[in-house]
Write a structure and sequence with these properties.
alpha+beta; YefM-like fold; three-stranded mixed sheet; 3 strands; rod-shaped
C-alpha cells in the first residue's frame, strides 16, 4: 500500500489513477502524516447473480403459455 501526501496527490492525480488501475493496489492519501482518504480500484458488482429476494418468488403458471381466444377477448376489454 502506497502513501502520498495531499500535494503529491493533487499534482500527480492522473498518474496515481493509472497506478491504481494497473496494479489494483490502494493508495492512502495523507494530510500532515494522518490518513484522510483511500484511492482504491473500482469493483464492479456481479450482475449475473440474481438478488436473493428474487429467488423466493414462485409463479404457479407458465408465463410463456399462449392465450386462448376467450382469454384474448377478456383481456382486450
Amino acid at each position: 500500500m502506497k502513501t502520498v501526501n495531499v500535494h503529491e496527490a493533487k499534482t500527480n492525480f492522473s498518474s496515481l489513477l493509472a497506478q491504481v488501475e494497473n496494479s489494483k493496489e490502494r493508495i492512502v492519501i495523507c494530510r500532515n502524516g494522518e490518513p484522510i482518504a483511500d484511492l482504491v480500484p473500482h469493483q464492479r458488482k456481479d450482475r449475473t447473480k440474481a438478488h436473493p429476494a428474487l429467488r423466493r418468488i414462485r409463479i404457479d403458471y407458465n408465463p410463456v403459455e399462449t392465450l386462448s381466444d376467450a382469454e384474448w377477448l377478456q383481456t382486450s376489454r
